[in-house]
Specification:
It is a single chain. Helices cover 45% and strands 24% of the residues. It contains 9 helices and 12 strands. The protein has a 5-stranded mixed sheet with strand order 10-9-7-11-12. A 3-stranded antiparallel sheet has the order 3-5-4. It has a two-stranded antiparallel ribbon with strand order 1-2. Strand 4 and strand 5 form a beta hairpin. Helix 2 crosses helix 3.
Length: 231
């Protein structure tokens, strides 16, 4: 996904909204946080929250101290991953894709991560014939590396413990629970400004979707992305 510095979402700069979603990725927040981070009045924060919910960018979650709490929804996570960088040339996109595939191989070959990449598809502008492209858009499907639930829980706890020893602080129970998956996404992203990662479920919202299978069983992926067409 690509946004521009001039783009506006619900009356706010798209870049500012993206920054808010990035700040609360994997965390819950309340309207007071919206006021503080977005520098809004209580009335403006209320309007912002309602509009973000209406756009399916955030969603209500468990209340905290009897106050309504929210979290970034799937569409919001895709927005948080959007880039405002300039279009890239195809040769740059090909390099970004190759480096991504190398990281996929590394993760899948490693036994330390709790999740592996079961499927990955390329979609978006890179499937066109254009030389100037947007992001390298890739959707991925993660699967637990270990099927046994007890051993899987032990490995997940081990990954969280390692992260905490390395200085990572989990701001919420959600971010703590999601860490074994999130660290794989961080590894795959590798701070690339030209790579945009998505979940398979996000593709169901796209129309006339074409994709290219990069990793995984094509027949299984076809059932997971019924709205798409493999090319």
């Amino acid at each position: 996904m690509r946004i521009s510095k001039e783009e506006v979402v619900a009356g706010h700069s798209a870049v500012q909204v993206r920054g808010f979603f990035r700040r609360f990725d994997g965390k819950f927040f309340m309207r007071s946080a919206v006021e503080r981070v977005m520098q809004l009045t209580p009335e403006q924060a209320e309007k912002f929250v309602n509009e973000m919910v209406a756009l399916d960018l955030i969603e209500p979650t468990t209340q905290f101290d009897n106050e309504a709490a929210f979290e970034v929804a799937e569409r919001g996570l895709a927005f948080a991953n959007a880039t405002a960088a300039k279009p890239i040339y195809r040769r740059t996109a090909e390099r970004v894709l190759k480096e991504f595939m190398d990281r996929v191989d590394d993760v899948n070959a490693s036994k330390e991560y709790a999740f592996r990449i079961r499927g990955a598809v390329l979609f978006g502008s890179m499937l066109s014939c254009a030389d100037r492209l947007g992001d390298v858009d890739v959707a991925i499907d993660l699967k637990p590396r270990i099927s046994d639930p007890i051993r899987r829980r032990q490995l997940c706890d081990q990954r969280r413990s390692i992260a905490q020893k390395q200085g990572r602080a989990f701001a919420s129970a959600t971010s703590w629970a999601l860490w074994p998956r999130d660290e794989v996404l961080i590894q795959l992203k590798a701070r690339s400004r030209s790579l945009s990662l998505h979940g398979f479920d996000q593709l169901t919202q796209l129309e006339n979707l074409s994709y290219r299978v990069l990793v995984g069983d094509a027949n299984l992926i076809a059932t997971q992305i019924p709205v798409g067409r493999a090319v």
